[in-house]
């Protein structure tokens, strides 16, 4: 049995974040999730937090620390989309997505790093997307926010790598979620043609990679981008 750690996942009330929380619980860790609404899976602690507000993030950490101890693994997963073509994208469409996806990850990681530095141990996992490096029409804001996480993880690695702290990026491709389920059959078939694996991933397949990169087995991996995309983004 691996050492039980205190894990905090942002946006853990649905989709990939929920699956990540379930996987860490199954592996015997102490798990907390942040959510603006809804709850994390059974066995997790849910705290309310708005990742665009540092005071809200700090309060959530204080709550988790009081209940479960210092956060040793942080997974920055909370994200939003406001897709539209560049010519139609408003400044607010751009700013809101970047502030949540990239700024939210910064606020989370900054607060988590305090306890990690003290403990000389930490695992920072940033959930990006194949779109971050591959690009996607209609997602200038989202792709920019997701590729920014790569520079963030690599800079953190250079700053904190000597303190027993790793920072890595997991970049999922198309995942079976409520969102992809709503796509018309023809569109889904079209997407699957471009994926060498010929199918979408399950959220659990992403969760298992996140749990592994946060484990003691991956102690010598930092600043890496790990794709979980069935080969879609090869070389990007």
From TrEMBL:
Pfam families: adh_short_C2. GO terms for molecular function: oxidoreductase activity. Belongs to the short-chain dehydrogenases/reductases (SDR) family. Signal peptide: none annotated. InterPro entries: KR_dom (IPR057326), NAD(P)-bd_dom_sf (IPR036291), SDR (IPR050259), SDR_fam (IPR002347). Gene3D superfamilies: NAD(P)-binding Rossmann-like Domain. It comes from Okibacterium fritillariae. This is 3-oxoacyl-[acyl-carrier-protein] reductase. SUPFAM superfamilies: NAD(P)-binding Rossmann-fold domains. It comes from the Bacteria. Keywords: Oxidoreductase. The keyword Oxidoreductase applies.
């Amino acid at each position: 049995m691996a050492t039980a750690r205190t894990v905090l996942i942002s946006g853990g009330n649905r989709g990939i974040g929920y699956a990540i929380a379930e996987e860490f619980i199954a592996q015997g860790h102490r798990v907390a999730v942040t959510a603006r609404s809804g709850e994390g899976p059974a066995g997790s602690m849910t705290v309310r937090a708005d990742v665009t507000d540092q005071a809200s993030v700090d309060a959530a950490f204080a709550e988790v620390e009081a209940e479960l101890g210092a956060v040793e693994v942080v997974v920055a997963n909370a994200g939003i989309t406001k897709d539209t073509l560049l010519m139609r994208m408003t400044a607010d469409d751009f700013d809101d997505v970047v502030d949540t996806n990239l700024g939210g990850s910064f606020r989370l990681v900054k607060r988590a790093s305090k306890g990690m530095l003290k403990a000389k141990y930490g695992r920072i996992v940033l959930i990006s997307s194949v779109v971050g490096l591959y690009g996607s029409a209609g997602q200038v804001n989202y792709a920019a926010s997701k590729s920014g996480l790569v520079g963030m993880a690599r800079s953190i690695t250079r700053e904190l790598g000597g303190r027993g702290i790793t920072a890595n990026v997991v970049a999922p491709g198309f995942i079976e979620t409520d969102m992809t389920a709503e796509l018309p059959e023809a569109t889904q078939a079209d997407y699957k043609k471009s994926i060498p694996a010929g199918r979408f991933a399950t959220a659990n397949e992403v969760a298992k990679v996140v749990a592994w990169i946060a484990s003691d087995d991956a102690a010598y991996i930092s600043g890496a981008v790990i794709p979980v995309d069935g080969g879609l983004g090869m070389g990007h």
